[in-house]
Structures are given as structure tokens and as C-alpha cells.
Design brief:
about 45% helix; four-stranded parallel β-sheet; 4 strands; alpha/beta; globular
């Protein structure tokens, strides 16, 4: 006896985005040292008609929200969870910058594990190339 296919949450999301006629969604990843380059990539992707999600906090720059080291560590964990959610939401990932650190490497692996296409502003930086 055959069981009916129950769509996964990912399939439901893809169907909903299609029904809503949403443009492709791009998650920008990379070291926050490349925030100016991420802003430029955001501009170019937006001009090309894509919805862009990217890191919203540069914890390498001083700010009252992460001035306390204990609170900063907790925020870093929450921001990591939030960024993985952005990757799940996205149709593809764009990695910005010519350096891939451990966090970005993990984001690339996560995106690829979900079957998301991954593009690079600097293709030579692809850790799997």
C-alpha cells in the first residue's frame, strides 16, 4: 500500500513563494569585515530584481548592543541562528569577499547541505573548488 507524499516544510515554503510570485531570495554570507562589499552586493542583487537578506550586525564595530562580553556571546549565538534561518529562507547564497573563515565555511556547508546554490564574488575562495 502506497502512502501519500506529505510535503516537507521546505517544499511548502517553495510552493508558497511560487504561489506568491516572489522574486528569488538571495542570502549574502561572508565575514563582516566585508560589510561595504556586502552593501554593494545587496545593491547589485536588488537592482537585478532579487530580494536580499544579509547580516544586519557588524559585531566587529563597537556598539552598545554588544559592549558587554557576556551579552555579546549570547547575541552572537542568536545571530548565528538567525542567519541560518535566512539561508533556509533563501533560494541561493552569495558569498562575499576573498577570505573564507570558519563561520562562513560553516554557512556554505549548511547551504549546500540544504541543496542551495552557492555563488561567490571571488570564486577562487570557494573552499570546495
Amino acid at each position: 500500500m502506497s502512502h501519500p507524499h506529505l510535503p516537507t516544510p521546505e517544499e511548502k515554503l517553495a510552493d508558497a513563494k511560487q504561489l506568491l510570485s516572489l522574486p528569488r531570495i538571495v542570502a549574502i554570507c561572508g565575514s563582516t569585515r566585508f560589510m561595504p562589499e556586502m552593501t554593494e552586493a545587496d545593491l547589485r542583487e536588488t537592482e537585478a530584481g532579487r530580494i536580499v537578506v544579509k547580516p544586519g550586525c557588524d559585531m566587529k564595530s563597537p556598539h552598545a548592543l554588544w559592549s558587554d562580553p557576556v551579552e555579546a556571546e549570547a547575541l552572537k549565538v542568536r545571530l548565528g541562528d538567525l542567519h541560518r534561518a535566512k539561508i533556509r529562507l533563501a533560494d541561493e547564497v552569495l558569498v562575499v569577499g576573498d577570505h573564507i573563515g570558519d563561520s562562513t565555511r560553516a554557512e556554505i556547508a549548511y547551504a549546500r547541505s540544504l541543496g542551495k546554490p552557492v555563488r561567490f564574488t571571488h570564486p577562487e575562495a570557494d573552499p570546495d573548488a
